[in-house]
Specification:
The chain has nine helices and no strands. The protein is mostly helical. It is 72% helix and 0% strand. It starts with 11 loop residues before the first helix and ends with a helix. The protein has one domain: Tetracycline Repressor, domain 2 (Orthogonal Bundle). Helix 6 crosses helix 8 and helix 7 crosses helix 8. The protein is globular and about 55 Å long.
């Protein structure tokens, strides 16, 4: 995502806070996002940060929402490449993984936020998972549709998202390379699609 593209649901000051948090996380990682420094970088009062966000994780969750919304908008603009569901899904996860690996410290900070278990984030994390499920379903179908997914389709999207997330956590911990993340999703995709036939 272009760091200056933001969500219309955020007011101008909240947008500046989120952008500043993304810049700080990208430069020096999760621990570098300190609210006092963040307020200074965003050119807002510290009280403004606290009025708009409950904690650092809340800000990074908003950054993740921005990333996912941008990806969704880009994907909805044209048909996804690939002649089979497997090709489309693997291609999507390859692109998404490559995008995250271009900004590894920011990616690690956002993944850590999703896995943090902070109760105040449950709504944002649920919304993130819902958006990702919607994107995966669109890629699987090869089109964007208002039709409700079958229970099998929804399960496929949710399981692939879980495999991808777990592999990404391994990547941020130095266990996997980005290519290995994609390979794990490729195997999961093949097995799950075979099970649906």
């Amino acid at each position: 995502m272009n760091e200056h593209e933001t969500n219309n649901d955020l007011d101008e000051r909240a947008q500046r806070i989120v952008i500043a948090a993304m810049e700080m996380a990208e430069q020096d990682g999760y621990d570098a996002v300190r609210l006092r420094d963040l307020a200074e970088r965003a050119d807002v009062a510290l009280g403004t940060v606290y009025r708009r966000f409950s904690c650092k994780e809340d800000i990074l969750a908003a950054a993740l929402e921005l990333q996912v919304e941008q990806m969704r908008t880009a994907l909805m603009g044209s048909p996804w490449p690939g002649t089979t569901a497997e090709e489309r899904l693997v291609s999507f996860f390859q692109l998404a993984t490559n995008t995250l690996s271009e900004r590894p410290k920011l990616a690690a900070a956002m993944l850590r936020t999703v896995a943090s278990g902070v109760p105040e984030l449950s709504e944002k994390v649920t919304r993130y998972h819902g958006r990702m499920t919607e994107i995966i379903l669109g890629v699987y179908r090869g089109e964007w549709s208002e039709d409700l997914p079958s229970s099998e389709e929804r399960t496929l999207a949710e399981l692939l998202q879980n495999v991808w997330f777990a592999a990404l956590v391994g990547w941020t911990g130095g266990i996997h390379t980005p290519d290995e993340v994609v390979e794990q999703v490729r195997h999961a995709t093949r097995l799950l699609l075979r099970g649906m036939q």
